[in-house]
Specification:
The structure is a single chain. It contains twelve helices and eleven strands. The strands form four sheets. A five-stranded parallel sheet has the order 2-5-8-1-9. A hairpin with a 3-residue loop joins strand 6 (120-123) and strand 7 (127-130). It is α/β, with parallel strands linked by helices and 263 residues long. The protein starts with 6 loop residues before the first helix and ends with a helix. The chain folds into two domains: 7-164, Rossmann fold, CATH 3.40.50.300; 170-260, Orthogonal Bundle (Helicase, Ruva Protein, domain 3), CATH 1.10.8.80. It is 46% helix and 17% strand. It is elongated and about 70 Å long.
């Protein structure tokens, strides 16, 4: 997969990882944080272990745990330990990619501190796991104002370098839709889809606008609807934008935007 634009961000992320630093990628949903991490990881020739944060994630799931039936049969033997993503990445010298770190419980976040600081963690009944050369953490977070996210602790933030990703220039977003769309949309469809999505980010009634991912969906669906970008937008946008409390409904806002753009 080719990344359109993002030269500055790629350079920054590569520089941090090559300097053996851990990186926090911050930006709205759909700006390509995961794609960027994968691309840089491949460029460095490192393996990547991925995990997705949520409020139910446990410390044992992050680090790993002993298999209860095996422990009952043979005791706390090393081969009874089922490694979690943190342990695996440390042992393999791989990149641990944590998607939406700030959705994870604070207690689970804090388990990362010794791994980030010293490259080692202590596991009860197993002992110390030492990180192999090449281990690093790249985490993403959506801005704190997004639903179901929270702020990271100061202690955890202090262990990361920050690379911010915003929405891209219109020409780059058109190139992205052209590259990623599956149904070969026309240039007119692509430009209309991008224009509509960008309009959602400027509408004062919306708390959250749509990303280029929505434009790709609109373009593909429009092809299957005979070029009807407006109808495609009514299918693709409602799940990707959020109205401010007390504002018009999402569906009404979409209809208003379609009218302004003559779709």
């Amino acid at each position: 997969m080719n990344i359109v634009g993002r030269d500055h961000e790629i350079e920054a992320l590569l520089a941090c990882l090559m300097a053996s630093r851990h990186v926090l990628l911050e930006g709205p949903v759909g700006v390509g944080k995961t794609v960027l991490a994968r691309k840089v990881c491949a460029a460095l020739g490192r393996g990547m272990v991925r995990m997705d944060g949520d409020g139910r994630y446990s410390e044992a799931r992050l680090v790993g745990q002993f298999d209860p039936p095996a422990v009952l049969a043979r005791g706390y033997q090393p081969d009874c330990f089922i490694a979690g993503p943190l342990s695996r990445a440390m042992r393999e010298g791989a990149l641990l990619f944590i998607n939406e770190l700030n959705r994870m419980p604070e207690g689970v976040q804090n388990v990362l501190l010794p791994a980030l600081d010293e490259g080692r963690i202590q596991v009860p009944h197993l002992g110390e796991i030492q990180a192999a050369a090449g281990f690093a953490v790249v985490a993403t977070q959506n801005p704190a104002e997004f639903v179901a996210t929270g702020a990271l602790s100061e202690a955890l933030q202090d262990r990361f370098e920050l690379v911010r990703l915003g929405y891209q220039h219109v020409d780059e977003e058109i190139d992205i839709v052209r590259q990623e769309a599956r149904c070969s949309p026309s240039e007119e469809i692509i430009q209309q889809a991008v224009a509509l999505v960008r309009a959602t980010r400027q509408d004062p009634r919306l708390r959250r606008g749509a990303s280029v991912r929505a434009a790709i969906a609109i373009a593909d669906i429009a092809v299957r609807l005979g070029g009807d970008v407006g109808r495609a937008a009514s299918l693709a946008l409602p799940t990707r934008i959020e109205a401010l409390e007390g504002a018009a409904s999402v569906l009404n806002i979409i209809e208003d935007l379609k009218k302004k753009l003559s779709l």
